[in-house]
Design brief:
Helix content is about 50%, strand content about 0%. The chain is an all-alpha fold. It has a domain of about 35 residues. The longest helix is centred in the middle third of the chain and has 22 residues. The relative contact order is 0.05.
């Protein structure tokens, strides 16, 4: 699925239109959720877990002093 051509995309869209043309909106949403559920589950398993904070790393914060501008009176 990495190298889809324009023709491939048009075929996919046409097939989808043919499959969904007689569906009402609730049926369409149910079908879409059914198709998405496995993908969502896969993405959730791929989610990176946060790493515990390490005290070995030095953190430094740098800030610049605010500049005051004088205005002419």
């Amino acid at each position: 699925m990495n190298n889809l051509t324009i023709e491939d995309i048009h075929k996919i869209r046409e097939e989808n239109a043919n499959q969904t043309q007689n569906m009402n909106f609730d049926d369409y949403k149910a079908q879409l959720n059914k198709e998405i559920k496995p993908l969502l589950a896969m993405l959730k398993t791929m989610k990176a877990s946060p790493k515990p904070y390490s005290f070995d790393v030095e953190h430094s914060i740098a800030a610049e002093q605010e500049t005051e501008y004088k205005t002419k009176k």
